[in-house]
Amino acid sequence: MMMKLSLHRWAAFAACALAMTAVTPVHADPGDFGAMPGLWKILLRHVTNGKAGAPEVHWHCVDEGADPWTTFAAWTPAEGDCTATDKQRHTTSLAWKLTCKLAPSASAHVDFDSAKHYTGSVTAEGRGEVTQVEGNRYAACTSPQD
Questions:
Q1: What is the pLDDT confidence band of residue 85, given thresholds at 50, 70 and 90?
Q2: Cβ distance 110 to 42 under 8 Å?
Q3: I want to staple 103 with a disulfide (CB 3.0 to 4.6 A). Which of 18, 55, 78, 79 is the partner?
Q4: Which residues contact 128 (CB under 8 A, 6 or more apart)?
Q5: What residues contact residue 59 under an 8 Å CB cut-off, 6+ apart?
Q6: Short name of one Pfam family for this protein (predicted)?
């Protein structure tokens, strides 16, 4: 009889826990963004008439626990004074809107397919994709000057 009661209580607890997770919204913890710290090579390409131009190469050292918004969304090129709004963050992606004074509004995103690689783009209203970005982690940072 004791075994049945324990099993019954366990089943009730499991059902309760499952029900709570189904209605509780899940938010990304600031510490669990899916990108590794280290030295990143970023390739930035401007898109004109549907064709990506030659890449601009940027190197960036990412610290452990760095803010994903200032680290992986700072590449967004701005035509005039722009403000990022409607920021959405998940463990492996960032998405946001850009409202610019001198250009049409745009949307941007960064998607990680692994902790060492991401792609992203900016799409402007009425113009389509205007910028592409790709990041690859190469190594650990060896000094603050990396």
A1: confident
A2: no
A3: 79
A4: 47, 50
A5: 39, 40, 41, 42, 146
A6: DUF3617
In order of 38, 39, 58, 115, the CA distances from 143 in angstroms are 10, 10, 17, 21
List the structure tokens of 97. 């809107």
DSSP string, 36-92: --EEEEEEEEEEETTEE-PPEEEEEEE-TT--HHHHHSTT---SSSEEEEEEEEETT
Is residue 12 helix, strand or coil? helix
Q: Could you give all domains of the chain from N- to C-terminal order, each with its CATH number?
A: 30-139 (2.40.160)
Residue 108 parent element (H or E): strand 106-114
* Model pLDDT, residue 114: 92
Q: What is residue 78's predicted lDDT score, i.e. its pLDDT?
A: 52
pTM: 0.71
pLDDT in tens, 8-26: 332 333 333 323 223 333 3
Which residue(s) pair with 22 in the sheet?
none
